[in-house]
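Morning run. Coffee first, then this:
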Amino acid sequence: MVKVLIFAGGTGRRMNARTKPKQFLMMHGRPIILYTLEKFERHPDIGEIVIVCLEGWIDRLWDYIHQYMLKKVTIIVPGGPTGHDSIYNGLVAMEQTTDPRDIVLIHDHARAHHDEHPGRQELRQRHHGRSRARERRPQPRRRHDRQRAAA
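And here it is:
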């Protein structure tokens, strides 16, 4: 199964969003996060959606999920003090229900999609045995790179 962990734990500090977190700001009459959730909800390869959210906004997010009848969202967990901690919280929450053969995509809700099916390239690569994680191997640093880094 393909699962998505959506990281939506930010406060919108850089956007200067004072009244609410950026994922809950309205765009065309709907919270921004719904645009991301609906794309994954419609994606034929996605079986489950788990969301990391600011603790004080979890109930509001569940209200939106029920209002817009999103069926693939199974878990919402509170974020941590940093983005890394928040993603970790989400992965821990998924641990009991995730099989080692499952694919877990981690997505920052704030990144806009230009494609109707987000994650399509990653899924295609994974199904053909060429996931990005396997393709990115650390490259040995060349001597002149080490000299530049030392300067």
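The first helix runs from residue 32 to 42. Good start to the day.
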